[in-house]
Amino acid sequence: MGVIRTVRGDIDARELGLTNPHEHLLTAPPASAPEPDFRMDSEAAAIAELTSFALAGGRAVVEMSPRDYGRNPQGLRRISEASGVHVVCATGWHKDKFCRPWVAERSVEDLADQMIGEIVEGIDDSGVRAGIIKVGSSLDVITPAERKVFQAAARAQRATGVAISTHTEAGSMGLEQVDLLRSEGVAPEKIVVGHVDRRMDLAYHRVLLAMGVTISYDQIGKEKYEPDSKRIAFILELVGEGFGDQILLASDLARRSNWPSYGGWGGPGLTYIPWRFVPWLVASGLDAALVEAMLVRTPARVLQIAG
Predict the structure, then answer these.
(1) How far is 82 from 218, CA to CA, in rounded Å?
(2) Which of 249, 298, 255 is nearest to 272 (CA)?
(3) Is this model's pTM higher than 0.70 or not?
């Protein structure tokens, strides 16, 4: 195996362990996301939440907040050091609502060069290097600004080997995202299509998986969208069809109210998947080795790059 690029440096991919591949730990969203609930800026809360995650067996988290969503690389390194949990930081940009002011007047080449620099050399003067590329699209459309980011991300991926993880708005445009990235030369095994469980259509998920990409069931614990019982039924069906090594599990807890560590009753928190969802999967008949694939082996495969 190769290495995983974390905020504390590169580690052997075999060291990664149980991984949550799509979360938000420290964010300061722009004015276009005005709800105070989205401002997750407490390092103390993040350390407490990561420490609980570690007690539940968690070893790594992929932090998917890019520059236009208030990324804090130095803060990520501090909370990783304090908790002992590996954290992977993202380069790239979010959907049009956030990225357009940052990318509209820039060329694809310029954007790609910045992503490559953040992966290879580091983010600004933080000393932290990015280990994944974030891209996003809007509801039922890939806008011109978003298309530019996808094209730049493809160039950065080919240059560095780092995987691309996508935001799909309410699960839409996954097929179009994959087609665009593949047309730009990205190998499907380095593409993660996010938020597919916002669109609980089994045929849609099958088509994505047949394209060779990895899909992310990353709204786990958010019953307001779909019940977890339905997610489990879908996972069992897809595993039975041979797609067990192309599925990732996360919760995308991007609000203060999702975390007990912010002092309220809180939502599911980072312990929900290892302590509640995984036992539910096993009790529903999923072999423990396949659960390990989703939580350990597949994240390591997706995230690893040449050392």
Answers:
(1) 25
(2) 249
(3) yes
Euclidean distance between the first and final Cα of the chain, in Å? 9
Question: Residue 31: its pLDDT value, please?
Answer: 74
CA torsion through residues 238, 241, 246, 249, sign: positive
Dist. CA 259–CA 301, nearest whole Å: 28
Q: Which of 160-164, 263-267, 286-290 has the lowest mean pLDDT?
A: 263-267
Rounded to 5°, the CA angle 23-13-167 comes to 30
CB 254 within 8 A of CB 40: yes
- Gap between the Cα atoms of 75 and 117, Å rounded: 20
Q: Reading across the β-sheet that carries 164-167, which strands appear in turn? A: 19-23, 60-63, 86-92, 132-136, 164-167, 191-193, 214-217, 247-249
Give the phi and the psi of residue 30 in degrees, each rounded to 5.
-75, 180
Domain hosting 29: range is 3-303
CATH number at residue 213: 3.20.20.140
Is residue 52 very low, low, confident or very high in pLDDT (cuts 50, 70, 90)? very high
Domain count, the chain: 1
